[in-house]
Amino acid sequence: MRPTTYLLQPPTQQLPHPASPFHVWILGEHEHWLEFYRHKTGFLLRFPGLADFTMNMSGTEITCRPVPGVSTETIEHLYLNQILPLAHNAAGALSFHGSAVVIEDFAIAFLGPSGRGKSTLAASFAVNGQSFLTDDGLITEQRDGSYHILPSHPSIRLWEDSQDELLVPGSAPILPVCYTSKARFLAASGLAYCDHSKPFRSAYFLGEGVVDDMIIEPLSAADLLICFLRNSFQLDVENPDSLSRVFVETADLCHHIQGFHLDYPRDYDDLARVREGLIEHAASVSRPVGNAAQVT
Length: 296
Description:
By secondary structure, this protein is α+β, with helices and mostly antiparallel strands.
């Protein structure tokens, strides 16, 4: 991966943009969370009322101009969880909304929309000895005919109920941010962390939790491709070359790993059983043969 240069500029007020955004991420039903604009050297990524990030076409140079009064911690959250995965996409990597943990000497990933429990699941592994690789921004790299998951920032973001249930009492988060009650905890808070890449063995796409028992069902290669694409970070959604590259490379990824639908009751008292079931299942998963998912 090519390194990213990040420059934080002094705060300045956001001025109305003369053009309409070519793409928007919506928060809730109507609120614009992130607006995508063309920029003279690449892209302007605007979080209304929070910050403007400019990025060059290759994702290797990023500049941030926060709105006055927005904390440094808020800007760091935006950069790590939203901007950096988009930069990896621009730089040619596959980038997904997912968390990953290490089992034995390989990695498994948990993917799905916000609120499905990716971070809570990763944290439950990390406080019980299985290191986490990344939380929410999952970056892959092809190496020696296989795919690896790269480590990201050594921290996990958790809602208050997950903090209370999973972390050692007295664990102190990084200072809170203004746009979410989710707090970031460093690996020093008792969360085991792996700082080097691991082979990507299998991906688990999380259901809504409206089940009575744990379910793990294999996905076909076609369904796996669709699930990955639905959970991918894509910077330029109007660029056919970029979209084609992500499609082709994601299809190749699907020939190298296994994919499964995972659902389980969202009960903290049941997390130990879920972890044990996943460890056993992941250890039984072999590398794919053609398009077929194999479980030995």
